[in-house]
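Ops channel
N.P.: pipeline sanity check, posting one input/output pair.
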C-alpha cells in the first residue's frame, strides 16, 4: 500500500491557528462508515447522535509544558529541547535542536541555572538522554520554565495554555494533546451522562511518534514509536458491558482507539492493564473493540489518516475530507471534528 494513496491537497488558510472561544462550537461532520454519506452539524449537538448505553472512551492524559529553551553552559549557544519520555525520576529522552551542538557530556542551562541538563547518551533517531539537576520539585520548575509543545504548523502564540488541554486531563505525561477531546466541555459531558451515555477513561501518554511524517514509501514499512497506556478495571467493565449489551463503543481520538485495540484480547474483551504499545492501524485492520470514532481532520499521508481510513475506508475518508475543504472546515489540532460511525437510525 503506497503512502501517497493517503495524500490530499489542503489550502494553508484552512489550518486552524487558534482554538475557538467556545470549545463545543466547532463544526462536526458525521461520516457513515458504511456508505460514506456525510452531513454537517455542530459539536455541541453530539448527544443527539449517541444512545443510552453507548460508551464514550476518553483519553485523560495531560500535556506537560515539554518545550524548554536554554543555553550551553560552556559556549552560551541557544538550545531548544523537547521532553519526549521519562525513563526515571530525573532522566528523560529528549529531542534537541540544533543536535550538532549537543554531544555527550554537554550541559545545558535553563532559566539562568534554575534547571540544568547533562547529555548522557545519543539514542534512536538522534534523541538525547538527559539527566536534570535542580532544587525543589521538577514539575513546578517545568511549569515555570516550559512551554506547551504546539505542532509546528501552528504559528500563532497560544494565549491560554489550558486550551491545549482537555477539560478532563488528569495524568501528566503527554508531549501532544489528544486533540479530539478539546471539543468537550463540562456541560456537554453532563448532557451525555444525563442521556445515559457511559463515560469511560483510559490513559495514553501521547508521544511525537504518532505525528511524525511517514518517511517510508509503503505503509507496511513504517514503524510506530511506543507509548505508555493504562486502563483501570472499572473503565474496562464499562466498555465490556456496552459491547455485551449491543451498544456502541465510541473512541474519542485516535489515541483512545489505538489503546483500546492494543489492550484488548482477541475477542475485544478489556481488563485492567498497563504497558507500552506501538500498534499501527491502517486499512485491512479488523477492529475488535471500537464501533465509532470522534476525531479531528488529520495531516496528509499521516498514520492518523491511515487509521481513520481503516475504520471508514480510504475512499470514503478522502471524499469526506474533500467535502470538508469545500465547506471550509478548520483542519488539524485546533480544527473541527468528525464522527465516524454507522449513522443508520441516527439521522
Amino acid at each position: 500500500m503506497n503512502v501517497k494513496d493517503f495524500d490530499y491537497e489542503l489550502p494553508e488558510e484552512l489550518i486552524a491557528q487558534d482554538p475557538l472561544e467556545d470549545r463545543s462550537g466547532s463544526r462536526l461532520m458525521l461520516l457513515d462508515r458504511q456508505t460514506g454519506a456525510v452531513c454537517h452539524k455542530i459539536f455541541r449537538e453530539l448527544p443527539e447522535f449517541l444512545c443510552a448505553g453507548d460508551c464514550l472512551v476518553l483519553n485523560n492524559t495531560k500535556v506537560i509544558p515539554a518545550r524548554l529553551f536554554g543555553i550551553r553552559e560552556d559556549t552560551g549557544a541557544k538550545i531548544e529541547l523537547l521532553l519526549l519520555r521519562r525513563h526515571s525520576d530525573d532522566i528523560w529522552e529528549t529531542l534537541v535542536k540544533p543536535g550538532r551542538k549537543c554531544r555527550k557530556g554537554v550541559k545545558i542551562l535553563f532559566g539562568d541555572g534554575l534547571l540544568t541538563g547533562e547529555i548522557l547518551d545519543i539514542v534512536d533517531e538522534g534523541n538525547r538522554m538527559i539527566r536534570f539537576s535542580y532544587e525543589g520539585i521538577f514539575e513546578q520548575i517545568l511549569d515555570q520554565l516550559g512551554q506547551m509543545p504546539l505542532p509546528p504548523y501552528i504559528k500563532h502564540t497560544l494565549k491560554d495554555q489550558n486550551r491545549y488541554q482537555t477539560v478532563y486531563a488528569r495524568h501528566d505525561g503527554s508531549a501532544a494533546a489528544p486533540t479530539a477531546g478539546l471539543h468537550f466541555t463540562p456541560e456537554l459531558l453532563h448532557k451525555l451522562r444525563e442521556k445515559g451515555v457511559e463515560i469511560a477513561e483510559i490513559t495514553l501518554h501521547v508521544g511525537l511518534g504518532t505525528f511524525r511524517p511517514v518517511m517510508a514509501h509503503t505503509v507496511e514499512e513504517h514503524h510506530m514509536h511506543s507509548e505508555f497506556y493504562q486502563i483501570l478495571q472499572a473503565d474496562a467493565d464499562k466498555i465490556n458491558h456496552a459491547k455485551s449489551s449491543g451498544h456502541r463503543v465510541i473512541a474519542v481520538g485516535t489515541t483512545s482507539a489505538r489503546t483500546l485495540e492494543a489492550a484488548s484480547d482477541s475477542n475485544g474483551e478489556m481488563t485492567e492493564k498497563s504497558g507500552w504499545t506501538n500498534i499501527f492501524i491502517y486499512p485491512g485492520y479488523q477492529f475488535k473493540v471500537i464501533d465509532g470514532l470522534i476525531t479531528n481532520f488529520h495531516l496528509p499521508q499521516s498514520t492518523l489518516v491511515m487509521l481513520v481510513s481503516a475504520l471508514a475506508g480510504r475512499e470514503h475518508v478522502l471524499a469526506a475530507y474533500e467535502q470538508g475543504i469545500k465547506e471550509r472546515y478548520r483542519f488539524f489540532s485546533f480544527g473541527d471534528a468528525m464522527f465516524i460511525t454507522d449513522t443508520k437510525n441516527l439521522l
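N.P.: looks fine end to end. The chain has a mean pLDDT of 94.
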